[in-house]
Amino acid sequence: MTTTRFIVRGHSMRPAFRQGDVLALAPASPESIRRGQVIVFRAPDRDPDDWIVHRVIRVAGSGAARQIVTRGDNAPRSDEAVQREWIVGRVSERCRG
Hints:
About 0% of the residues lie in helices and about 35% in strands. It is an all-beta fold. Strands 1-2-6-3-4-5 form a six-stranded antiparallel sheet, with no helix packed on it. A hairpin with a 6-residue loop joins β4 and β5 (about 65-70).
């Protein structure tokens, strides 16, 4: 299995992740995602290369009706519900940059 790694840009997940940290990404199906995990997703209204890294604060429902709500640890409010097709994976490892 290939591990995807990328460098954190931005401050929305401080203090857990700082700009320059290197994160490893593991595959994650929407059904496997739990509250407290940090997921990576792409929002359709942003650049496709702009991955969002936020913590899951609420999960409700199942199957196609599953709702996953995230927020950056340093963000004042939560994001809109993350759609299944937006999910890239979950953060599995961090190395300080």
